[in-house]
Amino acid sequence: MDPLVLTIVVAIIALIAGAIAGKFLFSANTKKQLEEAELLAQKITAEAQQAAENLKKEKLLEAKEKFVQLKADHEREVNDRNRKIAEAEGRVRSQEQSINSKNGNLDKQIKENEATKENLNRQIEAQNERRLALDKLVEEQAQKLEKIAGFTVEEARNQLLEAIRQEAQGRATAIQQEIIDEAKLKANKEARKIIIQTIQRTAAEQAIENAVTVFNLESDEIKGQIIGREGRNIRAIEAATGVDLVVDDTPEAIILSSFDPLRREIARLSLQRLVGDGRIHPARIEEVVEKTRRQIEEQVMEIGERTLIELGIHGLHKELVRMVGRMRFRSSYGQNLLMHSRETANLCGIMAAELGLNAKLAKRAGLLHDIGKVPDEETELSHALLGAKLAEKYGEHPSVVNAIGAHHDEMEMDFIISPIVQACDAISGARPGARREIMQQYMQRIRDLEQLAMSYTGVEKAYAIQAGRELRVIVEADKVGDADSEKLSFEIAQKIQNEMTFPGQIKVTVIREKRTVNVAR
After folding, report:
1. 339-373: buried (b, 16+ CB within 10 Å) or exposed (e) per residue?
2. For 240-267, what is each residue's pLDDT tens digit?
3. Helix 318-326 crosses helix 337-354 at what angle (to 10 degrees)?
C-alpha cells in the first residue's frame, strides 16, 4: 500500500480514538474512564502504526521484486535485439560476398562473349563471301539453263506454278467431289428412307387437266340456238363467262376454252342449264350465268370446308377456306391445284410425324403453301410471297407463314417445317404423271441444257436424254484430261442448279474417250 494512504488511515484511526475519548469526557464519567480511553487510543494508534510499518515493508519488497523482473525482461529483449542485428549483419556480409562473386563471373562472361562475338563476326563475313560466290554461280547456271531450254527464269517459274496450280485444283475438285458424294450418301440414307415411307403411305391421283372443256350436245341443231341470230347468244355467253366458245365441225360438241378452270366450270354449268331449259337469249344467259356463279361460290366454300374436315384442320379463316375451295378450279402445269395441295399436306403431316415434329402444323402449311395462286386480285408479287402475306393477314402461325413464303427459296427458312413443305411440294410435283409440260417449253428446256454444256471449252457434243433427266457430255480427249472431266461434270451440274428451273434432278455424265487407229498394209 502507498505510504500516503497508510498515513491517512492512521490519522483516521487517531481521530476515531479522540472522538471516543471526547465521548467519555462529555459523558461526565470518572477520570478513570478517561485514562482507560486514552490508553485504548494509544494502543490502537500503536497497533495501527505497526500495521502500517508492516504493510510498508511488504510493498517495498514487492516493488523491488517487480523492478528486478522488469530489469531481467529488458536485458532479455536487448539480448534478442542484439542477436537479430548480428544475424542480419551476417546475412548482409554473405550477400555482399555472393554479389562480389557474381560480379566476377559476369566480368568473365562478358569477356568470353566479346571473344565469341568476334568469332561470329568472322564466320558471318565468311558466310557472306560464300553466299556471294554461290549467287554468282547460280546466276551463271541459270543463264546456261536459259540458253539450253529457251525459257527465262520467270517463264519457267510461271510454267511450274501453273502446272502445280492445275494439279492442286484438280486434286481439290476430286476431294471436294468425294466429300460431297460421301455427305450425300450419309445424309440421303435416312432422308430417302423417310421420303419413301411417306410416298408409299400416300395415295394420289395421276389425272391431269387440260385448258379446254368439251361440252357434249344431243344434236348439232342446238349449236344454232347457242350461236343465236348474228351470233348474239354466243357473244353474250362469252362476255358473261369470260370463256371462248369454239363451235366447229366437231359433231355434237362445243369446246370451251379458258385458262381459268373456274370460268370454264361456270360456262359449262350455264350452258347445261340453258340447253336443258331451251330458252337461250342474252337476258336469260346473263341471269343463268349470275345464278350459276353464286352457286359455284357456295360450292367453293363447301369444297374448302370438306377439304379441311378430311385433313383434320381447324380454325382456318373463312377467306382462306374460300381460297382452298377455289384451288379445285385451278391447275398448275396440268396438275389440279387442290389435289396437289392436299397431297402436299398429307406428305407434310406424315414426314413431320416421322421426324417427331408438329404434324398438324406441317399439314396446315402444306395445304396453304399455294394459296397465292388463287388471289382475288392480280398482283406483281410471286405466289409464294403473296401466299405468305395472305396467311399473315388472316392470323396464321409464323411458322406457317414462313413455310409458305420460303417453299421456293424467296424467303429465308426460319422454322423446321419450312424445308419439309418445300420437299413435299417437290415430291408432289415431280412424281410421274403429276404434271404435264407444254411441248414448246419441254423442247426449249432440252435445248437450254445442251447449249449450257456446249458453252464449255473442250465439249464436242451434248445430249439431253431421258426426258431431260440426264445430260450426256462428250469431250475431246486431246483438250480435256481425266481430272478435268471430273471438274467439268461438277461445274456443269452446279451451273444447271443455279441458273435453270427444272423438276426433280438432272444427272450430268461426262464421257472422254481416246481412240488410236492405224491400218496395216
Report:
1. bbbbbbbbbbbbbbbbeebbbebbbbbbbbbbbbb
2. 888 887 777 777 778 777 777 778 888 8
3. 120
